[in-house]
Amino acid sequence: MDRAMKSIMRFRFFLIVQFSFLIVYLSGCGFHLRGNADFDFSLLHIQSDSADQIAKELKQRLQDKGVVMVPNANLAQAVVYLRNEKVDTRVLTISSTSGRLEEFELNYHVEMEVRKPDDTVLIEKQVFSLLRDHLFDETAVLAMGTEEEVLRQDMFRDTVEQIIRRLQMLKLGKIAVTDIAFKGLKSHYAIGDAYSVDLVEKSTRNHPVDIWLMISVGKKTWFVTSSEDKAQPWQIHEEPKAWRRNVPPTQTRHRLFDLTVQPRWAGEYVLRAVYTAAGTDFDLKEKATTLRSNIVDASIVFDKGRF
Predict the structure, then answer these.
(1) 20 to 30 A Cα–Cα from 173, which one of 133, 156, 259, 291?
(2) Are 271 and 236 in contact (CB under 8 A)?
(3) What is the pTM of this model?
(4) pLDDT per 10-residue tile (average), the chain, 307 residues
(5) What span, in angstroms and rounded, lies between the C-alpha atoms of 39 and 242?
(6) Element (H, E) at 20
(7) 3-state secondary structure of 257
(8) Domain ranges in the chain?
(9) Could you tell me which CATH number the domain at 3-167 has?
(10) CATH class belonging to 180-306
């Protein structure tokens, strides 16, 4: 390879490196180059099978645009499957005089498919493949490792951009999501401890909702409603019953429990709260349409042994 060609390729690589560092710098300052990406969906699950690097990059980009990553495929509007991520290296040129490596090629490959939770295909399987040439400088072996990593990251970003453009074609509809959390809840209580728990909204809500409160032990779930009886201020039901109906947007904090832990409560529980649109029925057999809207849960232990 003549010196002129080497100089051109080194200059091209220099530009790639400088642009990559510029992106990192701007991102660190809170500025992100994200184009016009917008999505007609709110809830997504990414399923990675040997594609963890691209899954991480894609998840971060989508979250930056307000898409909620749900932990279970059944709770998502769409499931992105990423498979068979790999980076191969191929020798391009070897010095005719020294017989040593002068240039090699990086080939990045990943497969993507998008389906609904019921397995309906939204985007058929597509293969993304990118190539990058890389000059080998035996006088700067340590620097070459850094340069190769920069090229890899550049390929990851380009692939994420292509995937995002595909996802922009999905028309699934926005779902209003309210960020809710338990306030004052501890993971362990002893018999006789005060048990005071609030449900708080951490984001703005514009519409009335129904609130469902559930307690689970193993696979068994009960719905909790409030009661006027001070001795038993709450009741449990096997069939779905809302804890509170038609809650206006102005009510953003709700006292759930204000009790003293009793000996008969000893055990491990899961406490769960769910918001649904006002007037919506809660179907235990079809949780995807309800649980994916707004949900918070936590594990609680009432420890009789600590009494």
Answers:
(1) 156
(2) no
(3) 0.53
(4) 49 46 42 56 89 88 86 84 83 58 74 93 92 61 58 83 94 80 90 91 85 89 84 83 93 91 88 84 56 66 63
(5) 32
(6) helix 3-28
(7) strand
(8) 3-167, 180-306
(9) 3.30.160.150
(10) mainly beta
